[in-house]
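re: ur msg from earlier - yeah i can do the glutamic acid complex, just paste it... oh wait u already did. ok heres what im feeding in:
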Amino acid sequence: MTVTRFAPSPTGYLHLGHAWSALFAHRAAQDGNFLLRIEDIDPVRCRPAFTAAIFDDLRWLGLTWPEPVRIQSQHMADYAAALDALRGMGLLYPCFCTRREIEVEARRAGAAPHAEDGGFIYPGTCRALPAAERAARLAESAQVNWRLDIGAAMKRTGALSWHDRAKGHIVARPDLFGDVVLARKDVPASYHLCVTVDDHLQGVTLVTRGEDLFASTDIHRLLQALLGCGTPDYHHHPLRTDAAGRRYAKRDQSVTLRALRDAGKTPEDIEAMIT
Ligand code: GLU
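and the outut:
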């Protein structure tokens, strides 16, 4: 039995790229085993109106899914439990660095900004803070990022791999990310943590999603090993692009399903536009 999911974040209206991704997951699942999940843990970027629009647009496209739909913001206790487990293993530490401090420290160590988002791999500054200083700063800091000690985590799990239906056997290199943030004071669970916990709890056997998330799977594989979650099969698909070869983006209103529907397009027209 294959169980897939489509897991959009309600930060805007769904566009043609989402339609392709949702249809891809729907086709890969056997009857009734395509799940919809709403990834709305970030209260600043996510809006209930966009969640309602996701349901509406996907129904219009002709997709069906079992109820209830998992809405991540309603399951914070599950993510807190996973964080506690990692904390209990001594693998989480609080980080007090600002983006600017990370940049200065990373550049000092000779690092270059990451090509995708211009950010820097965390240089590990707070990993070695003495216990007393850590406790004092925890008590006084408004902004705290909880980071996973990737080196210690990998020591614990040993070598890991996963399988992608397009690219085959993949040796996981979560160390290439540096110590990722798994929770913040204002958003107490990260994408990496929630997606790993949810795919496990929902019995997802095949994760289909865009290639832009390919590298994240190394982190998810590490978290699965630490938290005792099974490893699904993966199929990362190329991102759809417009006629000029540009990725569809939420900020381009003309390619949202909503706008296309208002302009008189049918679900069949949408399928024809993306295949
Ligand atoms: N919520 C993520 C997004 O909208 C997708 C997560 C996933 O498929 O793992 O980009």
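cool cool. The chain has ten helices and ten strands. ping me if u need the other ligands too
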